[in-house]
Amino acid sequence: MSKLIMIKYGELSTKKGNRGFFINTLYKNIKNKLDGLDVNISKDRARMYIEFKDKDLDEIKSRIDKIFGIHEYDIVYSCDSNVESIKDEVLKLVKKKDFNTFKVSVKRSDKSFELNSQEMNRVIATHIFKNMEDIKVDVHNPDLMINVEIREKQSFIFFNKYPGLGGYPVGVQSKALLMLSGGIDSPVAGYLAMKRGIAVDCVYFEAIPHTSLNARNKVIELGKKLLNYTDKINIHIVNFTEIQESIYKNCKDEYVITIMRRMMYRIMERLCLKYKSLAIINGESIGQVASQTLESMNTINSVTNIPVIRPVACMDKLEIIDIARKIDTYEISILPYEDCCTVFVPKHPVIKPSIETCIEEENKFDYEKLIDKCIEDLNTIKLEKEEEKFDDLL
Ligand code: ATP
Ligand code: MG
Description:
The protein starts with a strand and ends in a 10-residue tail after the last strand. It is α/β, with parallel strands linked by helices. Helix 3 (about 85-95) crosses helix 4. Strands 1, 2, 3, 4, 5, 6, 7, 8 and 9 form a 9-stranded mixed sheet that branches. A 6-stranded mixed sheet has the order 14-13-10-11-12-15. Helices cover about 40% and strands about 20% of the residues. About 40% of the residues are buried. A hairpin with a 3-residue loop joins strand 2 and strand 3. It has helices at about 20-35, 55-65, 85-95, 115-130, 185-195, 215-225, 240-250, 255-275, 295-300, 315-325, 330-335, 340-345, 355-360, 365-375, and strands at about 1-10, 40-45, 45-50, 70-80, 100-110, 135, 145-150, 155-160, 160-165, 175-180, 200-205, 230-240, 280, 310, 380-385. The protein folds into 2 domains: about 1-165, VC0802-like (2-Layer Sandwich); about 175-390, HUPs (Rossmann fold). Magnesium ion binds near residues 181, 183, 339 and 341.
């Protein structure tokens, strides 16, 4: 009898044609995440199995808890798929447990197995009763849940089920670019996009000297938190200073934020083409600020045809914060360093900006040239596992 971690794929098993690709991607992601640990990973169409050393179990669990595409995982004991060995192994394991009530739950995925699930439930329970005293069955609230999964090659016995992170394995979708600011919303948006299997790289707009290196480092720290859920993230840093200064010099005060965001979207579109990314992802949330009314979104969005995905668009701030805490970005996000959006905030930003006015205002300076320059001067930071620490810069 050996002890294994058994991984259940969940949602991806509904993707018939793509199943092999999904499983292979998940396999690769798990392999990457468990790199450096003494494990052996195998897979079939329904399950993945990880052989491991007991001393690594906590570490493995904490890494598996951050892999998308896993619906559930169990720590299982394997045995031969026949009635005698299953009931003997169950008894052996159960004898080591301290309990008064129990329930047996057999799942038979090998339909050629000699007994059906109900019959097998009874066989196991009877065997336990015969060999142990002072215990009874409680189907509603048992002290000990005995799960048995009968598969063709071998069967598995386990007691606890661990929920996985769900979603799809990162990499089953094409790439997209996340607008990562230092705020609370955009890292959460990135996390949720990755949950759908999207591999994200990040884009950060900075306006040095109006924004500080601390602000940049904060974004890098946030990127590293997102890196927990994937194996590689590039952060493209756009030097936005000249565009931002030109906007403030030339355009109507109440329109500066709208125009700044249109410029960001234009640059995002260029970067999507450059990096073969199929969507822009950001942390806009409807109604949160003046630039996130539906009117503003229309006017801002009209500069690009690339899909803009806003995973937190319909969430309340508190719901977003809950996720930010879960993914450990909240404490970083609330550090006070100024972002280029907060540096120059007009007193009365327009909440129903018109496209015509934007175009009029934008024609007051040669933004195309400045955008070209942003793309040329792009600075990319690669985040990978074991990245050097930036903590001391914060
Ligand atoms: P966040 O909390 O993520 O900063 P926010 O509520 O402050 O969001 P805005 O500042 O209006 O909202 O920005 C909306 C979205 O635009 C952000 O979530 C982010 O995706 C993107 N964004 C804003 N500023 C930047 C920036 N400097 N660099 C990259 N993306 C940005
Ligand atoms: Mg912000």
